[in-house]
Amino acid sequence: MRFLSLEPIRILLYLVGICAFVGANAAYLVLAERKIAGRIQRRPGPNEAGYGGWLQPVADGIKLLVKQVMVPPGTDGLLYRLAPLMVMAPPLICLAVVPFGEDLVARNINVGLLLVFSLGSVNVMALMLGGWASRNKYSVISAARVVSQNVAYEIPMLLVVITMLLATGTLNLNEIIRQQAGWFWHWNILRGIWTLTNPLIPVTFVIFFICMLAETNRAPFDMAEAESELVAGAFTEYGGMGFGVFFMAEYANIVVGCSLATVLFFGGWQSPIGILSGPIWGPLWFLGKMYALIFVVIWIRWTFPRTQFYGLLNLSWKILIPLSLFTLLLSGALITLTKLL
Amino acid sequence: MIVRKESIPPGPSGEAPSETFVLNLGPQHPAAHGVLRVLMTMDGEWITKAEPVIGYIHRMHEKMGENRTWAQFLPNTSRIDYLSAMHYTHAFVGAVERAAKIEVPPRAEYVRVITSELNRIASHMVWWGAMLADLGGLTPFLYAFDDRELILDLLEGICGARLTYCYYRFGGLCNDIDDDFVQGTRAFVKHMPPRLKMYRDLVTDNIILRKRLTGIGPISAEMCRKYGATGPVIRGSGVAYDVRKIEPYSVYPQFDFKIPTYPECDSMARYLVRMDEMEQSLRIIEQALDQLPAGPVMGKVPRVLKLPPGDYCYAVEAARGRFMVRIVSDGKDTPYRVKLRTPSFSNLSLYEEASKGMILPDALAMMGSLDLVIPDIDR
Lengths: 341, 379
Known about the structure:
heterodimer, A: mainly alpha, 13 helices, globular, B: alpha+beta, Cytochrome-c3 Hydrogenase, chain B, 2 domains, three-stranded antiparallel β-sheet
């Protein structure tokens, strides 16, 4: 009677839960971003729809939903329609392996980290196809940029992840978090320093964070959108919900990226003070850390100008890749040394 | 669609075939600040030729000058470059005064200098915000407009207009300034230096901004001379050309101020010139307020103004460079010819040569550093 077990229902509930989580986050992170941007720019931000602007995402959603999804003549219709789906699906799947609490994870699989990074690359293809299928010169330039940018930043990102793998020894995200139990200095970002397994671990985190910004195409690395150069880049020809899905996917990708940073460096659902853990506090700690990182992402966007495209590639190839290689080698050497002693 | 030259194997004739495409940038484009259209022939992201197409906001200001009286043309001057309306009015008023030999009371000249320099700061603030927005940093725009707002409030208090002032009249000003304006301007002069320091710390010294502008878009002094580029563009090429010093007008010789120049010729040099100019403008305003004489603000002007036949010129240093009005009179109450020499037009004309071989983001950063106002180009 296996089909009567609770597992399919559990999975279904998680599926609904993740979709709702991503949807709500995409909607309200847009509002949060606009509010934070408003504060940074000394203005109130959206405050008309609902109390303090709380209904703004609903209004935006309705506006986008009732618009006609137009496929401009001359475009590759199939790819044009496929691209928004391809950009939205990977972050949804990635969240299936992210443990929000000790038991709050849809599928606790042993190759969780691998899954996240393999799916993360699909995003690039979606933007490229969307840009290519649009038959717009701005979109094509944007598509070309997206590919070279993501190829450049995938490498330091994966090198950083390998460095973390050396320290943790597992690809299971829940297991990585379990190893960081205790106080905040047991988190990976600080533990490497006092256990001398990787004293450069904060540098590793900075590299990870920069790469995450670049992979999610966020300012100052928003080459794909670059509104003052490429109008709206790959999304120039998209309107209505086609654009809406791209927009939501950007935030979904940020959620995935920041939750991954939380898992790898900030102890996931572990409490920073040793107490107040458990099934209720765990997810709260996780979300708190995740939203703090998302705040930093938003903060950076509204305070820095955009990098130049070749400066961006140079940053990766000339600085980040050598640096991440160095931290990887250093970490490997130190771990071997501590094992020998 | 996009193929880099190097990636294609050479053809039978030995030379690499190249495939270019034309990118129609504008007239509606976020970086065009209006209706500038640039036809860019691109080789990948490299620009092989950028051809500005102008005339989308042509309003026939010069022709309009020919069929209305001298005074009736006056409001037009505020609308040529709406961001430095004071300077433009000053040039036209100055040309007519020079022709009709109208004496301007000293108080009026001092107020003209004060308001012109306030207008220059307001104009540079708009440029600064817009340029940073071009570079993808949207926040400085709001801060720049915050400061500009103070200037607009001051100018609104004395002439009622916030953008197209038309404050100067032949022989003086339309209104005298009041104590509120003097106190407000003094407060503004105190308010601005800490803000400029903040902008320097937060924006000018930002590494991304430095990397985006340093060494980008070189415009040599030679090229400036060839195309007649003036203002911060030529001063960013190391030439201390400023109409306020070279051909002094009004009461500018009374004041002690420097002409900021940077010899680097790049976008950063032009950026720094404008940032320094704001400080110098503050110095001029402060000195002018200290020396402000009492007296009338309107000289004796004939009721029906008829200029003696002849050819008259008056040049001012507008926010974007040398603005010159040339009027030809045949003795009637309307001009025979009004020629407007606008700085943005000359500054844009070097764009085609200067942007050759640049990539798109750099070319747009350079366009931002030229501080183009499209109605000023098309007039």
